[in-house]
Design a protein that fits this description.
The chain is of the alpha+beta class and 100 residues long. It contains 3 helices and 3 strands. The chain has a 3-stranded mixed sheet, with no helix packed on it.
Length: 100
């Protein structure tokens, strides 16, 4: 769902969910948050970080609200993702803003 290309000073993340217009889900948030935390803890933050989307139709449509809607409307579905998604998405925003 997320590809990474890296040189010593440049990292590019490619969001890989073209059918969903590269909308970000919980798994993508967690992957990005954990990688940024690792960079910060090891002092290996890139000088340049780029993000792009696969598929050519959209860079990123935002949060994956389709999966949230399905979780909300499907009987017996795990509803923990409803509040958990927004908590992780805001944590990702904060983590990106404070990249060292």
């Amino acid at each position: 769902m997320l590809f990474e290309e890296r040189t010593p000073s440049v990292v590019e993340w490619k969001l890989n969910a073209p059918k969903a217009l590269n909308s970000v889900d919980i798994e993508m948030c967690d992957l990005m948050i954990n990688e940024i935390k690792r960079w910060n803890s090891t002092g290996q933050s890139p000088r340049v970080m780029m993000m792009s989307g696969t598929g050519g139709k959209a860079f990123c449509a935002g949060g994956d609200i389709v999966s949230l809607y399905k979780a909300h409307t499907t009987p017996g579905a795990d509803k923990s993702c409803l509040s958990g998604f927004f908590a992780r998405e805001f944590l990702l925003d904060y983590t990106l803003a404070n990249l060292k």
